[in-house]
Specification:
4 copies of one chain form a homotetramer. By secondary structure, chain A is of the alpha/beta class. Chain A contains 11 helices and 13 strands. In chain A, the strands form 2 sheets. A 7-stranded mixed beta sheet of chain A has the order 8-9-7-10-13-12-11. The two termini of chain A are 22 Å apart. In chain A, 60% of the residues are buried.
Chain lengths: 338, 338, 338, 338
């Protein structure tokens, strides 16, 4: 059987490294091109020492035509805006694209400009591109040519909240999302905030009230539930490599105890292999290096709380991207994801 | 000048180790007795290797009379209930006591029984013992014989919330406190949850809706503001040795922007050396190994947020205890605390 | 195709958890039994939360006959001595056994008693059981019924040293091995030395001159090279979950520069997928969660140094065990190991 | 009493932060000037958030004359070479200087050029400047105007080795020093090797055979013992903020057991408060945030091993610098160091 040929656009970061490890286990696909802006053409094993022996490619500055000659599907790991600059050219040449940037996640160009401070280069595809959370939008992903791969915080928040909203258990107003993320979520850029001695033995909030994942969470929930929720989103930086833990506090819309609320989630995700609804409290370590999202519910005083975790690099990025890839190409959805 | 003689009751834990380091710098006091239930009488340097050379004492099972012969003031680091079993005997013999357990923090024996599952051995002192947060209750601490040293989570929560409540900026209802603590807060007991490979690269909530610091926070705020608030308190365990970061979400009681709210805190604590009100977001690392509490305020949508940090072993335990000691004995309040 | 049925004897520890994750990817085998001494019969997802959804079995106290009815091959994860108490019964019933304890690694019962303080229950198999390092003893493993899975420190030491000894580059006398291991290597037992606040932000040596992996290193090298080396072995405990870094210092037996020595290793391992000989210095993170052993050589003054790393739970334990399993059953050796 | 006025030249790094914390406790000295090359003149609390409230100064680009007007003593925390460019001017203006760079530690300009790749700007002071390890060179430090503050690795190595060499217990040839350092030792520079996700859950060697602390160790030991030793020095980077653990392997020069060797160290340091010779194995955590050097000896096969630890930012840098300061000004040597 011919393997599906995969390219990674922007292959120097953590999500690319994770994709290479995942595809090394994929029986039906192979990575055939890696790109970088740099003219140095480094070998992938020098950029990502852990993949030495798994892939023998150089990172190259490839044009759209060169990519089209070498790949069927492109995983776009470029920064926001840079991604939407490239995606139309890739689609025009018949490639499928899974975009890991934020460029195609929002509903409209105006919101994009408001939160990302840039004019969107490809506004017509906004609102029409499926959001790559298969557990909620699988029917939209099947047959698509472009998928907007979800943000890490949104995945950890939308998955537990949506079933409770859809079933009328919680109100869409005054949802508080207090999230905590490992440091790989901040990317590989050389800034003081990412240094070992800054992060280690430290804990802090950042982007309070201003983080770009807030509109993503709100618009995606609205797309699924029909009602725009009002969210307060507070991310915190944790001294660990990977993992997100999200604690949410919502107002109940009708009386229900923990048992009923957990049953609601369990029923909603009963056919989803990658969502594990639990009675016990979840923890990051049980999902690290996996594509699982673990979650539970608690009722405390006048609030419904959800507690959920994912690995930000797997279910929050590269694992979800591979799950979307498997859907696009008709492979078993969990291929190379267990 | 004769030094004040200090005993530590229950000297095997982290708070005792921290007290010994702090007293090694104290010019007006010295540690003269350390106790343990064990008959092994270990040398303090074998129990706490870091204090070798700073203190040459053995841990011994001492009676109240033996303690009275050797110490003027006792820092009681026993578990809850065990502390209130000993404290009356110490006070009867004329010693002053700073109690680091939870036994004298609550207002009444009924609440104690409800949350700690024990009958309080010394109920008459509840509601009359000053709560050892000098920034709020200094006048009650001066001249006391017994001080209830605050809990770590309560200190990190009460300090930022109280001035906003007292000045009518936030409502006492529906206060959400999302706290994150380093692992020394869990104490030194040998349980799976405290193992390195359980905690490291992990993040989790615990005691959701059931943690004993919730009634402490509510009652102490009520004592200062006159109104019992309603609090949802969620603690989380973080892979770091020390430090607490507390994020709170309150409903505004009147219109005010961040500038005004920060000014409120700054004014309230203008004479307090150990509270640092900041415009920037605080972080745990800036307060680790210090007696400072750093804090700021943010307004996000319909909520007033406070963000604050302390070192749970210093301002959240032993540092606060030493601050209380300095007040009890009339020493400059920051002695050995800088 | 019928899958090979696998049992894990002593399934509560870290190596069992790792085996379950690895076998979840194995197309030709499945885990069919898990044992524990406890009568509680816990579900595997309650013992190892990360495997929830990957395996639906209970841990049970099974007899040899019960195991024989349910499994073709047993991975024995019992403590030393306990393992050799069970292994003969398993072999007698026709099962193959991969023993992760130290019980069958040494050459003779006397050395076992000297270092482990116990009389060996099954001395006749000592010296005849293949040592499960396929890169050195693959021909002995093929067709075996029992394999002694290597210790983690020995794997990290024997792999770089053996080719240099075999090719006469270094002397077998005065080999210094300075190793550093992540904390999972210490196992899951509840002891003060394994507590988060003991290990975190700490670094220490242990078992200096007395660690049981020294005779294993010496005897296994002797088995391969014909000469018993003299080793000084110093293990250190590092604040990380997994990984071993081993630095060795040997006396040169003939003149050779780094290039020649690296070429020696590269040639020796040229057909071995799981050994990556590099010019650059290796690091633990590049091998964590993989079955690779990375290594290089340096010449400093009068010494030949090797620097090597493995993941102690994968190539140092469960990954090597699976590699041996694949050999025993004729599956591609890297099945489920990439 | 007038306080001694202290300036820190190059006040943006970790050693400056540590000095500020230490001087906040010093009753006889105060920091009166902080310098930086930047024209931004940032407030020290914005550069080092942890010192907010302890010092109210701005970092300024000050000339030698400006420094002379404001300070009696300068702690020079500049990079190597930059330091020796400034030191003569400071001395000429009558200030005392404690130099934390490597510029005045070596014996001669040729060795400096060989290892640091620069022509030394002030070669005449090489070989004449006291090496600021008071436990070995106190008599040279008293009365000096310039002190070369020791390197962190050298302090951890020289202190345990020197007494054994002086007493003829070990040979100066073939000394192997295998050191492991926390990440603050790498400084605050923005490089990939210092990123959280690079260092965390990782372990690696660096500078194998080429680290500049090797000639420092050799020359300083020669200065004290009269014989130039031959050292192999291997540094490793550890995922912890601070601390150095050094394991050395030496050839015995005469027969002696551990007891005798430990007694040798104990006797040599019997009047030194900051050296703690122990029977037990030392660990980094017991010396972190202190000025102690903990050490012991083991005899394994044909080798004498020393195991020692310090906090690289305290005894390995700023604490030692303050100890030297106290000697220069006649204050009790442990002032502000307990």
């Amino acid at each position: 059987m011919t393997k599906t040929r995969v390219a990674i656009l922007g292959a120097t970061g953590y999500t690319a490294s994770e994709l290479i490890h995942l595809f090394a286990r994929h029986p039906y696909a192979e990575i055939t091109a890696l790109t970088t802006r740099s003219e140095d053409r480094p070998h992938v094993a020098d950029v990502h020492p852990s993949v030495r022996g798994l892939l023998d490619l150089y990172l190259e500055p490839l044009t759209d035509d060169e990519l089209a000659a070498r790949a069927d599907c492109v995983f776009c790991c470029l920064p926001h805006k840079a991604s939407a600059d490239r995606v139309p050219g890739l689609l025009d040449r018949g490639m499928k694209v899974i975009d890991l940037s934020a460029d195609y996640r929002l509903d409209d160009a105006q919101t994009f400009t408001e939160w990302y401070g840039e004019t969107h280069p490809d506004p017509d595809r906004l609102g029409k591109t499926p959001y790559g959370l298969p557990e909620l939008f699988r029917d939209k992903i099947v047959g698509a040519n472009l998928v907007a791969n979800p943000g890490c915080y949104p995945t950890s928040s939308i998955l537990p909240l949506t079933p409770l909203l859809l079933n009328g258990y919680i109100k869409p107003e005054d949802i508080i999302i207090d999230s905590k993320s490992g440091t790989s979520g901040a990317g590989k850029s050389l800034k003081p905030g990412n240094m070992y001695c800054t992060v280690n033995e430290n804990f802090q909030a950042y982007g309070v009230g201003t983080h770009r994942h807030r509109p993503e969470i709100e618009q995606v929930i609205a797309r699924k539930t029909g009602t725009l929720p009002s969210v307060i989103f507070t991310p915190h930086l944790v001294a660990m490599d990977r993992g997100i833990f999200t604690t949410t506090y919502s107002l109940p819309a009708k009386a229900a105890d923990e048992k009923e609320l957990i049953a609601c989630l369990r029923d909603f995700y009963k056919n989803e292999q990658f969502v594990r609804v639990m009675d016990a409290l979840p923890c990051v370590k049980a999902v690290a290096h996996t594509n699982f999202c673990d979650m539970t519910v608690r009722v405390v005083r006048n609030r419904v709380m959800t507690l959920s975790c994912i690995d930000n690099l797997v279910k929050g990025a590269s694992g979800a991207a591979l799950q979307n890839f498997n859907i696009l190409y008709g492979y078993p959805e969990n291929t190379a994801l267990i």
